[in-house]
């Protein structure tokens, strides 16, 4: 017959003896004593973890929203809210923390009716205790048994990070759409629905939507797709070309006419998807739209800036402007993370450098950046290192760690550290 180990339960007499042996004055103690007991072997609590919450996560929980963990077998786990993404790692606690359900604190351990209001609690309690005899206290003292549910030696520490979009781009690249005639060459097992991608990519729902917008993803026959760059440029070029063909004012683009004009040239889902990405309703003009200048300018610039080629800046800017519809302007800020300027002697050149194609390892990326260009200003290099920044780690801090600075003609540059 199996013997069961009985747990010793403290009595009020035990409590008085402990107070006496500890040389404490019972008149300075509140009237409720709580005896703590470690959990028995039958209590299952190893599935409990301590999680650090910042104000945003706390508000999400209070408003009834969910927090959810994401991560594949080879990925570091992240914690997501509907808006933000956090890196999660275990951190040790110097002192063990006990989890005790319904444990009372402070005034909750006093049965004195004189403890309220709050600002008079200590004085009233002290008065009531000092006016009592030890016998009265013995009669008034109560004992409550409390079970420890778990003992924690570490907690999960959360640090807000930028969303990890690169995996989204890598998955979408597997099935780039380049026209219905090439669909037979697409491996169907790499086609993903909106929900499948959202469950896989390590970011919040809001950030996931931003990621789809960043890669200009379109839903085609139930699957999220991105377009092959030359195919996308060809369709966009046809769409914006209708502005001049139809003598439209730049902010009076007609959606229905655009759809009809491209019928038979590209699937309707593709044209509608691109229209939603590249155009916005014109304020004050019903059923009229305006193309986003920055997006149109970027895809045109990307088409001109073929990898491996370089252009004189003045020639490039001229070609870029000529390729845009009337009413749109090319601006250098639209090249952010797409191309870099460099001087060879007295002549300024521009060449392609797409941030999306750079390594994800900070050391490899820095090596490649300084191999491409020997010295950078912070403004120039920032688009290429933003991926590694956080709320507390700025681009300038990264450069201070991975590069060295020098000043020429009053301008600070960064060069390779070694």
TrEMBL record:
Residues 110-131 have a biased composition (Polar residues). InterPro entries: Dcc1. It comes from the Eukaryota. The keyword Cell wall biogenesis/degradation does not apply. One of its GO terms (cellular component) is Ctf18 RFC-like complex. GO terms for biological process: DNA replication; maintenance of mitotic sister chromatid cohesion. Keywords: DNA replication. Residues 110-133 are annotated as: Disordered. The keyword Protein biosynthesis does not apply. Belongs to the DCC1 family. This is Sister chromatid cohesion protein DCC1. It comes from Glossina fuscipes. The lineage of its organism: Eukaryota, Metazoa, Ecdysozoa, Arthropoda, Hexapoda.
